[in-house]
Design goal:
Elements (H helix, E strand, L loop, with lengths): L4 E8 L5 E8 L7 E6 L10 H8 L3 E6 L19 H19 L4 E7 L2 H4 L11 E5 L11 H22 L1 E2 L10 E2 H8 L15 H13 L3 E7 L7 H10 L4 E7 L24 H10 L11
Parallel strand pairs: 3-4, 3-5, 5-6, 6-9, 9-10
Antiparallel strand pairs: 1-2, 2-4, 7-8
């Protein structure tokens, strides 16, 4: 493996909003592969640093960015800050793809998403620049797909405590409940509304045309995709994973389902894939998929 340099970077979203993130690179200034990593909702990009540096150490350039309102892309105050899932997908993920495509024009560009990042990475016109996709523990945020104990907690936080807290604070204090970073009110409102199976992106703007455009982009993507899930994941259960794949109806899919407690110590769950204990077992699977070009143009069975 090669040494890796990690640099804080800033670049514009497609609407001009300034986004921040981390660029992981090896010594090769012109890598054959580049990766754009879309985080889970409310999870800072730096959380994934060990996994992303692992990829970069194999001669890849890897960008992990924070959506507007989160981490490196957070304003001085979230009170009244306007942002929704449609902004995260169309403008933020789209801007990250465009920036990496311009920086590494000769590289094969892979889109990678964890959790709801799997939806964000495909929701812009620039997603057509991607040659392949990798989804890790993907889900749509629909409460009914979560395991029962989590479902109760999510419903309490989003639908009971969420509205008065949003009105009082001007944002949703997700960190108080162990749900990652604090969230813009628009994003929290949309997440609370995921009590029905139908995916509605544009609640914040109520722009039906924009919503339909984003969903049509997701439906039309025809790329090889590696989809990794864990059997003990309370967020991205098998119904939740399949719901994502129903939206991405034209993907050429490779499935990998990771058994619980693969490291013989702790459950994999929703984020255990990114623990360094997976370096020699699970991380090489994603690496090989990216390097090999993902068996393009045909579906293959579950690994």
């Amino acid at each position: 493996m090669n040494p890796v340099t990690v640099t804080r970077v800033r670049f514009p979203a497609l609407d001009g909003y300034s986004l921040g993130g981390f660029l992981h690179v090896g010594p090769d200034p012109s890598p054959h592969h580049a990766v754009v990593f879309a985080t889970g909702g409310g999870i800072r990009a730096e959380v994934y640093r060990h996994f992303l540096s692992y990829l970069a150490s194999h001669d890849m350039a890897v960008l992990a960015f924070d959506y507007r309102g989160i981490g490196e892309s957070r304003p001085a105050s979230l009170r009244g800050f306007v942002a929704g899932f449609e902004d995260w997908a169309e403008y933020d993920a789209g801007g990250a793809i465009a920036w990496m495509a311009a920086r590494y024009p000769a590289a094969c560009l892979t889109g990678m998403g964890h959790s709801i990042g799997a939806l964000m990475i495909g929701g812009s016109d620039d997603a057509t620049r991607l040659t392949q996709l990798v989804f890790i523990c993907p889900h749509t945020g629909y409460h009914g797909d979560h395991k029962l104990a989590l479902r109760v907690g999510v419903t309490l936080c989003w639908r009971v405590l969420g509205p008065p807290l949003r009105r009082l604070l001007g944002y949703f204090p997700a960190s108080t409940f162990g749900f990652g970073e604090n969230l813009p009110s628009g994003v929290a409102l949309q997440w609370a509304a995921r009590s029905q199976p139908r995916l509605v992106i544009g609640l914040h703007t109520r722009d039906d045309a924009r919503e339909q455009h984003i969903l049509s982009l997701v439906r039309e993507i025809r790329k090889p995709a590696l989809v990794i899930s864990a059997v003990d994941d309370p967020w991205a259960t098998e119904p939740g994973v399949r719901r994502v794949l129903q939206l991405y109806r034209n993907l050429l899919i490779v499935r990998r389902i990771v058994s619980a407690r693969l490291d013989n110590k702790r459950p994999i769950g929703h984020s255990g894939y990114f623990r360094r204990s997976q370096r020699n077992t699970e991380w090489p699977v994603a690496l090989r998929f990216i390097e090999d070009g993902a068996l393009k143009n045909r579906k293959v069975p579950i690994l």
